[in-house]
Amino acid sequence: MDQGLEVEQRDNLGVTYPLVVATWPFKEAVRAAWRSANEKASSAVDAVIDGCSACEELRCDGTVGPGGSPDENGETTLDALIMNGTTMEVGAVAGMRFVKDGIKAAKLVMDHTDHTLLVGEMASVFAISMGLSGPTNLSSSESIKKWTNWKQNHCQPNFRKNVFPEIGCGPYHVRDEKFNLCGEADARNCFEALELQSNVVGRHNHDTISMAVIDKWGHIAVGTSTNGATFKIPGRVGDGPIAGSSAYADDEVGACGATGDGDVMMRFLPCYQVVESMRQGMDPQRAASDALSRIARKFPNFVGAVVAVNRNGVHAGACHGWTFQYSIMNSTLDDVEIITVVS
Fold it and tell me: Residue 226 catalytic?
């Protein structure tokens, strides 16, 4: 196992469905999905919708739902995905403005179109036309304050590279020189700001709820919801609405959910990798470790995590670059269990 990569596994062979697993200690979201799957006997898809919707309403960690993660223009937009592991249908929205119900909009795409992904303002138009409320301002006093403070800090940290000015709020231009990044700026302030840029990704500014449910009939679904990376360049879409990256499910095998630096992780489709590795006979622990190791070999400083669950209910979490927690609920537990994985 690569150094810096830790894996945690719990064996649940023989557990009676349903089962809910999700990234991070979002207990209320997991409870909502559990109530839906267990007490209401909802399908896996509907339970995922109920769980992710609860997280959106609670604005989990400020990184899910409206009111968080402003982009460079101070606007909050939403990404979400739902995948049915029985039919392999997917619905997703990305960069959606003016509509607060990201996961419900994704389900509308799956249920009422032959498409997989709708983006931007036209995703909002579609969602509203299908009955969701809007248009709604997705910003909040907290997100505006965060954006204002960021502007006062010369727009640092940000996701720009190889541009001029390095320190400041633009407008930005392509920089030909690949050295002397600080130019005539005060050296101490400049290098401190550049150091901040390298730490732009973290749990509370770059996070996703990724949830998997196995329902009473053994069918599997996954879903994600996020408001993306804080201070992202407007128009940026991370891995949240990308099937195979943030989440993937197949009734025949199991499911995976991911969180972290989506700009890096989406280049490797880690959740697709996890599910396919389990299909080839790997247990969830080895599959999760292998998927992140593939990324770490190319990007040793990336931050991310995956949680894997096979069709028998065996689950495992792996992380790289941070401490990760995931939540699990099944019929053997009185309440949500939080499992910590240390990098």
Answer: no
